Structure formats: C-alpha cells, structure tokens
Amino acid sequence: MASKSAPLGTRSVAHSKLLARWAAALAAVALSGTAMAAEWNLQPPVTPIAADIHSVHEYVMLLVTVIFVGVFSFMFWSIYAHRKSKGHKAAQFHENVTVEILWTVIPAIILIAIVVPVTKVVIAQKDTSNADLTIKATGFQWKWGYEYLKGEGAGINILSTLATPQEQIDGQAPKDAHYLLEVDHPLVVPVGKKVRIVTTAADVIHSWWVPAFGVKQDAIPGILRDTWFKAEKTGTYRGQCAELCGKNHGFMPIVVKVVTEPQYAAWVADQEKHKSAAADINTAAK
Ligand SMILES: [Cu+2]
After folding, report:
1. How far is the CA of 162 from the centre of ligand 1 (A)?
2. What pLDDT was estimated at residue 39?
3. Ligand 1 centroid vs 209 CA: distance in angstroms?
4. Partner of 133 for a Cys bridge, out of 93, 150, 151, 281, CB 3.0 to 4.6 A?
5. pLDDT along the chain (286 residues), means of 10
6. 161 C-alpha to center of ligand 1: Å?
7. CA 32 to CA 27: how far, in whole Å?
8. How far is the CA of 242 from the centre of ligand 1 (A)?
C-alpha cells in the first residue's frame, strides 16, 4: 500500500496495479457470464439453422463482453486517474472533431460486424423453397392441428392435444418428466428432410415454437406464414405456443417426433389404413 509520503511515481505504480486487478476481476465476471449463457440458455441444436443461431448468439455475447470490459475499464480508469484529489480539474472544451468521428465510426463498425452474420441466418431461416414436405400447422384455443399438404403422407390430418392428466395439473399426482410438454398425437416427420411448416390460426394469434429446431413462427388468423426445418437427428423434440393466446396458452405444447425414413413410411401407411377404415365405417353407415 502506498503511504502519503511516498513519491508520486511509486503511488501511480500501485494504482495501476490496483486498476489492473479490477479490470481482470471485471473481465472474469463478464466472461463467466458469457460461458454460462452459452451453456445453460439454449437447447442442443438439431438443425443447421439452430446451430447457426447458437453461433451467432455466442459471437454477439463475446463481442458485447469485450465492449463491456473495454468501456467500463476505460471509464473507471478515467475517473480514478483524473480525480480531483490528485489536482485534476475539469477540462473546458467544445467540439472535438476527432472524438466525434471516432464515436460515430466505431459503433457503426460494431453494428456492421453484428448485422452481417445475423442477416445471413435470418435470410436462411426465411428460405422455405424446395421443401420435401409441407405441413400446415393451425393454432386453436388450445391445441394444434396439422395437415400434411405436400410430399409423402399428404392428406394426413392430426389434432394434437395436451396429454398431461388433469390430476398432475391439479397437483394431485406426481408430475412426469415431460409435464405439460406431451401430446396425444405428435407431429411425425422424417429425418434429414426439409419440412416446410405453414402456420395459421383459427381464433387468435398463436406461435409455433420448437427451440431445438431454431423455429418460432407466429400463427395468425386469416394469414399464412411459413418457416422450415431439417432435423439432422432422430428423436422427440418439444416446444410450446409462444404467443399469449388466452387461458390455456401454457397447455398447448408442440411435440415433433423425428423418425427414420422407413419408420416414417410405416407411420404414413398406418395413418392411411386408419383413414380408409374410418371411410369404410362411414360408407357402411349410409
Ligand atoms: Cu396458443
């Protein structure tokens, strides 16, 4: 610690050491925050778009961390090194062209550094062309309807309703692993195929959101919007309605089963068998 009688040079060395320690602590806190956000915040990506979203997220987090540490270190140093007790006085000046150009150009460069990679991902998200399968997702209060419009399985209609038992919701039974994230009839799609989802709604605005696919698209009554995904791994992926749509907004989950092509073909055949069986019953009844 610098005593009052110590020469000015020794004191400023001690001060800069202190300052360095502060900056290091600040950087450590900010970086651990970034690491946590990268690790905890997001579901593992299953589509190339979701992976791109993660990369963009991590890149921007890193960039803002560097800016945060840089700006605050400089600010704290300025306040500390130019304090009144050291004999500093406020500078009286107007207009500094160099500073004004710098604080315009540097933020502009930072914005461009963010906009370029982000725009690439947004454009890729919007490219719903050449889909192998087109499925219309209709939001209802409070369930999802799926109509297979194009590709293998065209003509299949599914109504996907929450499967969590009421006793679990009422707290009278223990909650299972996928509490409020389970449905009676999940959406079934083949792995490695481009699936275009056309969204709309029958009553109010809903939103079709599956985090692992990097997909979130509003479903608006009277309007068709679309989005797409190409799942690279088989499995069951879960999402939720992401637009406040009324009392049971939290009770209309989305479950997508990504299966192998033979499994998908078998599922389609099974659905068609049920459909023709239902048609037979209808004709028999007439
Ligand atoms: Cu909804």
Report:
1. 12
2. 61
3. 10
4. 151
5. 45 64 70 57 90 92 94 95 91 87 95 96 95 97 96 94 94 92 96 97 97 96 96 96 96 97 96 78 63
6. 12
7. 8
8. 7
> What pLDDT score was predicted for residue 2?
39
* pLDDT, position 59: 93
pTM, rounded to two decimals: 0.78
Centroid of ligand 1 to alpha carbon of 264 (angstroms): 27
- The residues whose Cβ lies within 5 A of ligand 1, an ion, are 206, 241, 245
CA 44 to ligand 1 centroid distance, Å: 24
Cα of 117 vs centre of ligand 1, distance in Å, is: 31
Residue the block writes with tokens 């989005």: 227
Task: Count the residues in the chain.
Answer: 286
What spacing in Å lies between the alpha carbon of 220 and ligand 1's midpoint?
Answer: 10
CA distance 220 to 243: 10
Res 276: pLDDT: 74
Helix locations, 82-175, DSSP H: 97-126, 166-169
What pLDDT sits at residue 167?
93
Measured between alpha carbons, how far is 169 from 147 in angstroms, rounded to an integer?
Answer: 29
Q: Do 187 and 98 touch, CB atoms closer than 8 A?
A: no
Residue 246 CA to ligand 1 center (angstroms) comes to 7
What pLDDT sits at residue 242?
97
Q: Are strands 254-259 and 187-190 parallel, antiparallel or unpaired?
A: parallel
- Strand 215-219: give its sheet, edge to edge: 187-190, 254-259, 235-241, 206-210, 215-219
Contacts of 253 (CB under 8 A, 6+ apart): 162, 180, 181, 182, 183, 238, 239, 240, 241
Alpha carbon of 205 to ligand 1 centroid (Å): 7
* pLDDT value for 277: 72
